């Protein structure tokens, strides 16, 4: 058995997938995007998800984040079973316990960086934890940009604001889908360093989908998907080893 088949139930998991399968559509047009995925994302670790285009990376991330109800199987966020919960309760859990970062920054243009960051708290009727705010903002290197609006910031700075917004509720898991996809090389490295530091220094748990072996090498481990199946896992990745593993996987 390979390691990808034997990662067993971990009660300290930030997120756990049990036999998760997801099918889009039905009948002749049905697409099996994820097949019997079993994985425990350990707390306080950073996992990258890689694989050819269409291999199911975003589907896995969305199931893990409670954004997509799998066709079968179960998803746990900490001790909470997400699968089967009513949408209203799921929406509350997503708002309070899951952080999202996307390729597009999705900041509110009329709000300052500080107002964007604290928006999820205001929506939840909570006030900011000053120590936590300071910790995330200083690690993101945007402490002197908090009064700026998004159009006054570079792409990399906007993404670092989006990361702070995703972290402000102290989520159980931060889910990032191609967070550096729209950034140049230098800005990408800065964003990845921020993600890495929040794991190292603040104990954040993180899952990141990426196509970039350099980005994946910032993670503690890399899951490889092919045709909706977890086919391999790599610890202590380097860009060269990740690129080597991807070579030969179909697609891309
Ligand atoms: N809403 C949808 N309806 C139908 N099929 C979908 C839908 N979303 C994704 N798919 C299909 O499911 C499969 C997995 O898609 P997914 O987006 O998870 O892959 P991915 O690895 O993230 O791809 P990429 O690297 O190109 O973003 C693909 O074959 C895709 O075409």
Automatic annotation (TrEMBL):
GO MF annotations, alphabetized: ATP binding
InterPro entries for this protein: AAA+_ATPase, ABC_transporter-like_ATP-bd, ABC_transporter-like_CS, ABC_transpr_LolD-like, MacB-like_ATP-bd, P-loop_NTPase
Keywords of this entry: ATP-binding, Nucleotide-binding, Transport
CDD domains: ABC_MJ0796_LolCDE_FtsE
Residues making up the signal peptide according to the UniProt record: none
Source domain of life: Bacteria
SUPFAM superfamilies given in the database record: P-loop containing nucleoside triphosphate hydrolases
Domain ABC transporter intervals: 15-252
Name of the protein: ABC transporter ATP-binding protein
Phylogenetic lineage: Bacteria, Bacillati, Actinomycetota, Actinomycetes, Streptosporangiales
